[in-house]
Design goal:
alpha+beta; two-stranded antiparallel sheet; disordered C terminus
Length: 285
């Protein structure tokens, strides 16, 4: 007597398992990359320190010797220095020093971004933060670029802005990054950037800091990648693609998130979302 033949088919959804595996791989990659980046930042910063420390010394030497040169020029008014008059030479040499100083400061900023990329949560300085002060400091830092690129800049009413338990330096850094990005994006004749603060989430338990611009906007494909490390749409030499990645990771470490809405040709809205209470650690009895 022949037995019945059959088969057992098992169907398992491995989507979540694959997602977890992918996250673990990405975390391991970021950990290794963080160590590499920290080492690179150190190697870049050492020679840059020589530049930044010596610029004021060189400027002091020039200012000390200028009276001697000017006495000579008074007796030789037609003097030619590298094809320039003395007045042109004097102006140019200080502009060159300012250019070197600015370049060194940009290197320092990039090194700071690289170090923050590898930064650990236990280095955060968590405390009660007055949001009005943080926003005011960020505004002051960004004021030159905002004045140069943005025609209308508006900050909403901050009188009722709550305090949050967070790291003020991190919040300031992220705000500066988003404001600078908005200013660059909105660089046109009728440009505007708005910064607003309001409650969000269930029962208003989240704090939302919203920065909106009417700039070029971001298409869907770029929006998928803007928080990835080293992704940038800027020309070579204008950015290293770490600003948004670092900002997003730091805000996540603080228990929050950064969201973005954008439409090409119409502008972008970035929202920093922070829990008002839940970030504060419990104090043992």
């Amino acid at each position: 007597k022949k037995g019945n033949h059959g088969a057992i088919i098992r169907i398992s959804d491995i989507t979540e398992m694959n997602k977890i595996k992918w996250q673990l791989v990405q975390r391991e990659k970021l950990s290794s990359l963080g160590l590499l980046v920290s080492s690179i930042a150190h190697e870049i910063n050492n020679p840059n320190n020589f530049i930044s420390f010596n610029i004021p010394l060189l400027k002091g030497y020039l200012e000390a010797i200028l009276p001697i040169i000017e006495d000579y020029v008074q007796g030789h008014p037609d003097i030619d220095i590298f094809g320039m008059s003395y007045d042109e030479f004097r102006k140019d040499i200080f502009q060159l020093l300012e250019s070197i100083k600015h370049g060194s400061e940009r290197i320092n900023t990039n090194v700071s971004n690289l170090r923050n990329f590898a930064r650990k949560k236990d280095k955060f300085k968590l405390k009660t933060v007055d949001l009005k002060q943080v926003i005011s400091k960020a505004q002051s830092i960004c004021a030159p670029i905002i004045k140069r690129k943005v025609r209308f800049f508006h900050v909403g009413d901050l009188r009722d802005a709550p305090t949050v338990f967070s790291d003020p330096d991190i919040l300031e850094q992220v705000l500066v990054n988003l404001l600078v990005n908005a200013a660059h994006a909105a660089d046109k004749e009728d440009s505007w950037v708005h910064l607003d603060v309001f409650p969000g989430g269930k029962e208003g338990r989240d704090l939302v800091i919203q920065i909106t611009d009417n700039g070029c906007g971001i298409d869907k494909e770029v929006k998928k990648k803007i928080f990835e490390p080293f992704f940038t749409t800027k020309p070579v030499g204008k950015g290293i693609g770490l600003g948004l990645s670092i900002s997003c990771n730091l805000i996540k470490e603080l228990g929050g998130n950064i969201e973005v809405e954008s439409e090409p040709g119409k502008g972008s809205t970035f929202r920093i979302i922070l829990p008002i209470d839940s970030v504060k650690p419990e104090i043992p009895a």
